[in-house]
Amino acid sequence: MRNSWSARATAAGPPMASASKPKPETVSIARLGHRGDGIAETEAGPLYVPLTLPGERVRVHREPGNPQRARLDQVLEASPARTAPICRHFGTCGGCALQHMRHKAYLDWKRDQLRIALAQRGLDVPVAPTIAVPPQSRRRAVFAGRRAGDKTLIGYHARTSHRIIEITECPILVPAITRALTGLRDLARPILPRKGDLRIAVTATPQGLDVAFEGPATRAPALVPLAAPLLERHGIARLSIAGETILQLADPTVEIDGVPVTLPPLAFLQASAASEAAMARLVLDGVGKAKRIADLYAGIGTFALRLARNARVTAVEGSAPAIAALGEAGRHGRGLKPIETLKRDLARMPLSAPELKAYDAVVFDPPRAGAAAQAAELARSDVPRVVAVSCNPATLARDLKLLVDGGYAVTQVTPVDQFVFSPHIEAVATLSRP
User: Fold this and answer.
1) CA-CA distance, 313 to 184, in Å (whole number)?
2) Mean pLDDT over all residues of the chain?
3) Which one of 73, 155, 209, 292 is least enclosed by Cβ atoms within 10 Å?
4) Is residue 219 over pLDDT 80?
5) What torsion do the CA atoms of 393, 397, 398, 399 make, to the nearest 10 degrees?
6) What is the pLDDT of residues 4-48, one digit of tens each?
7) DSSP state, 277?
8) What percent of the chain clears pLDDT 70, i.e. is strictly above it?
9) What's the DSSP call for residue 131?
């Protein structure tokens, strides 16, 4: 690889006017921050430089108005861990942060980020190697849509910007979503607001794509007759706006361990089937031979339907559509033990220690904010086994610390690369009472 690798075309953007252009600096990158940006130690303090790697000497320009951040101009001495990005949009699109890092180094970095988060809470626990997930496996994505004169932009926001990068390819997505980008533009055009962005959530299912528009959409009366042929042409099973189904050609359905589950509009689904399967194996191993299990923040049944093969399960979830979908799937799934469903906001009303006496294992998979209230109740309980699933190392570490202070021992934490090329980390932790 050439040591003079230039990032001008991707990271630096258009040349600045000479009168306002900051002076270039040459800095050495010491480490990567938790967002994947390189960090250089300078006399003025830490300097954050995206698209760089530890050990590199780079030429940069500080961002006007934000002297702690810089734009990469040129890599003068490249790290052995540097590799060529696989996407033409990398560097401008804000969707990926680490395509320029070799695979092993990238997976090791994610493992280290989890270790650091745990250590900051005083937890010295075993962290397994990161489980890799292949590209072109992400089955759900959220795009932004916006009017730009007569043009319809569909894509991701640029790095640290509200500007939309119109994408023509995306190596992390399943091909069915990438192929539908033209159809999404055609669908969005008649309902885009004059100002502001439209949020477009897309989930790939065997029946076709589930497309949901959110935001200040204009309800165009002509949309429905226009939409029908577009849905059929671009493999879209359902179109909804603001949670209301506008047109549906098929029921978007996924299989969880062989059990069909019909997705409610905007239902949460693990980002890829491969990562879901990896996490499910870890959860099943973590609960062991438990026969009475509480699955908290159960969603549509990612874990509950699998756990019910061998145990009686109580599934608790705050979303009414999600818990209804899980209940329906559980009633019709073959070979399942009974699944009791309970709609409950666990952040406001966690299962109490007395309620938890009924279970010999608990699984919880909260949103990014974590499950502090529920972890505190678990810490006061006598549940023998707990499995924590998280997409946020910081809140996972906080919740594990609560459990450890309550007498639990962490037996293993495993990172899963569910969000490929991003700094986000999924993890599964198993705990038991000695």
Assistant:
1) 39
2) 91
3) 292
4) no
5) 100
6) 344 433 444 434 444 456 789 999 999 999 999 999 999 999 999
7) H
8) 93
9) B
> What CATH number matches the domain at 106-129+270-432, 3.40.50.1370, 3.40.50.150, 3.60.15.10, 2.60.120.820?
3.40.50.150
CB 221 within 8 A of CB 202: no
Residue 352's pLDDT band, with cuts at 50, 70 and 90, is very high
Q: CA 71 from chain center: how many Å? A: 26
Instruction: Determine contact, residues 139/204, Cβ cutoff 8 Å.
Output: yes
Position 242 scores a pLDDT of 82
Task: Please count the other Cβ atoms lying within 10 Å of the Cβ belonging to residue 20.
Answer: 7
Residue with tokens 């905007």: 266
Express as a percent the part of the chain with pLDDT over 90: 78
| Strand residues in 263-353 grouped as ranges (E) | 292-296, 312-317, 339-343
Q: Are 211 and 247 in contact (CB under 8 A)?
A: no
Residues annotated as catalytic are 391
Residues 6+ apart with CB under 8 A from 33: 39, 48
Please state the CATH superfamily assignment of the domain spanning residues 8-82 in this structure: Nucleic acid-binding proteins (2.40.50.140)
Count CA atoms closer than 13 A to 384's CA, side-chain side.
Answer: 11
Tell me the whole-structure pTM to 2 decimals. Answer: 0.90
d(CA 316, CA 296): 5
Report the pLDDT value the prediction gives residue 9, as an integer from 0 to 100: 36
Instruction: Report pLDDT for 245.
Output: 87
- The answer to whether 8-82 and 106-129+270-432 have equal CATH topology is no
Q: Report yes or no: 70 and 61 within 8 Å, Cβ to Cβ.
A: yes
Average pLDDT on 76-95 reads 95
Task: Please say whether the beta carbons of 338 and 362 come within 8 A.
Answer: no
